[in-house]
């Protein structure tokens, strides 16, 4: 059995509570361009990569637009909302406890600029050796590409990594990469995290989490 030497975090839903803002940014994007897409219809954007979500909406509305321009506009709106997002309780203490023993990375389908802005504002950027964002891989979760690239850049075997994820898609990605995975039920969704090796309700209890990593 490979000893765990690296810990990798998903971003949205694990480090920071941005998920409602993704839906809000898409709603404002559609509204600004005259599309009748409700806030409820934007909720799937919480778990889907932006281009995939836009493509699904366009298919339903029978639009032939390319998602790229819409995704760029959504990103502009989302950047304006970033000042309102909050780091989840316990995250900072956990990261500080991990740093002396583990290499740390973030793997997300979010834009790297969003990740950098949030962790810089939270005083966490110095702790993460590797950041993998949307633009860094061709295939996004549930494909394992992001996690495999993070392991490569960290200089470790995938089997020597533990991942914190909050969605079934993310857990599938981590497991496909051959990594141990802890599901974080920040959204009160433990039934969706069954593929994880362990499930925790949040990141508040640092001591318990350290014991689960190995």
What does this structure look like?
With 214 residues, this protein is α/β, with parallel strands linked by helices. It has 8 helices and 6 strands, in the order E-H-H-H-H-E-H-E-H-E-H-E-E-H. It folds into 2 domains: 6-17 and 86-213, Rossmann fold, CATH 3.40.50.1000; 19-83, DNA polymerase, domain 1, CATH 1.10.150. A 6-stranded parallel beta sheet has the order 3-2-1-4-5-6, sandwiched between helices. The radius of gyration is 17 Å and the shape is globular.
- Overall SS class: alpha/beta
Order of helices and strands: EHHHHEHEHEHEEH
| CATH architecture level-2 label of the largest domain | 3-Layer(aba) Sandwich
Q: Report strand order across the widest sheet.
A: 3-2-1-4-5-6
Distance between the termini: 10 Å
- What would the average pLDDT be, to the nearest integer? 94
Shape: globular
Which percent range fits the helix content?
Answer: 40-55%
Number of helices: 8
The largest sheet is: 6 strands, parallel
Number of domains: 2
The CATH class designation of the largest domain is Alpha Beta
CATH topology of the largest domain: Rossmann fold
Strand content: 5-15%
Radius of gyration: 17 Å
In the CATH hierarchy, what is the superfamily of the largest domain?
HAD superfamily/HAD-like
Number of strands: 6
- Low-pLDDT stretches are none
């Amino acid at each position: 059995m490979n000893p765990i030497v690296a810990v990798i975090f998903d971003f949205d839903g694990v480090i920071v509570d941005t998920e409602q803002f993704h839906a809000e940014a898409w709603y404002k994007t559609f509204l600004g361009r005259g599309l009748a897409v409700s806030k409820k219809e934007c909720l799937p954007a919480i778990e889907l990569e932006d281009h995939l979500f836009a493509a699904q909406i366009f298919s339903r509305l029978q639009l032939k637009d390319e998602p790229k321009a819409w995704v760029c506009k959504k990103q502009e709106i989302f950047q304006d909302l970033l000042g309102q997002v909050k780091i989840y309780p316990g995250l900072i203490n956990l990261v500080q406890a991990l740093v002396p023993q583990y290499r740390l990375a973030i793997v997300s389908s979010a834009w790297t600029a969003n990740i950098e802005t949030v962790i810089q504002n939270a005083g966490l950027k110095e702790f993460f050796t590797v950041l993998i964002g949307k633009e860094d891989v061709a295939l996004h979760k549930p494909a394992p590409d992001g996690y495999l690239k993070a392991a490569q850049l960290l200089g470790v075997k995938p089997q020597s990594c533990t991942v914190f994820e909050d969605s079934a898609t993310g857990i599938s990605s981590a497991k496909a990469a051959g990594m141990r995975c802890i599901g974080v039920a920040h959204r009160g969704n433990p039934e969706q995290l069954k593929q994880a090796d362990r499930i925790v309700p949040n990141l508040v209890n640092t001591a318990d989490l350290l014991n689960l990593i190995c």
